[in-house]
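Chain A, query sequence.
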Amino acid sequence: MTKRSTLQTLGGAVEGFRDFAAAIKSGVPTVRQGSMAEEDQALAGNIVIPHAIVSGLVLTVADHVSAWAELAASPDEDVLLLHMQADYTLFRPVLEGLVEVIWILDGTDSSTRVRRALEIARIEYRHGLKLTNALRKARTPDDKTEQGIAALGRFLRTTATNLGSDPKDILSAPLIDPSSITRKIASRVPGPTLQTFNYWAITSAHAHGQFITTLRHAIETPPSTPQMGGALYEPDEELIANLIEFIGALLEIAIKLLNEQGYELRR
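Chain A, predicted structure.
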């Protein structure tokens, strides 16, 4: 039987995530005049790094929490539809997006924030190159994607030059491990140092369909008839509620940083 407090957390998240997503999607991301965000944009010399990177991550978060809210919603009172894998799969990019936003904006000065956004953009660029190269080899080239990746490459080079770095070195340097960023923001996040990494690992395993891990994080109930053998598995409502509360804490941190640094929605 699900505890009432857990049910309230999950039910409140459905409405809260809907409201958050609606608010984010109702305006055009921009930066406030004279703000830290505007200074960062001026240093980078373009609107992509860090502005579009940060805005894109926030939109990704909004999109996925909105999808979870619709997936979990039920017309019946005090009933929610939870899943063995799908909920965690949707929450993985939410965690990654919030972690990256917090890490970028937690930089102490414009140079640090722009460099961190550049690191995230490099991941997108390199993965994009792999995709377009693979499509070309398969004789199914995607011209639009190739144009987009080429444009991102130009923004990367411009930003690197404005930071006083060699664009070739920036583009060829090893990529940062996204999971390592979960530890880099530990001082910003309340609770155990590796709490962010722990939730990231759980959601990552589910997103990749790792069956043993999926069962590890489910409620196991022996069948009513002993001779049947095996066990019955169902989603762990308490774990999902804890994950949602943690995402709420990350959202609060990210929104505070966004507001402080001048990121706005123009309606």
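The radius of gyration is 21 Å. Residues 4-113+179-262 form one domain.
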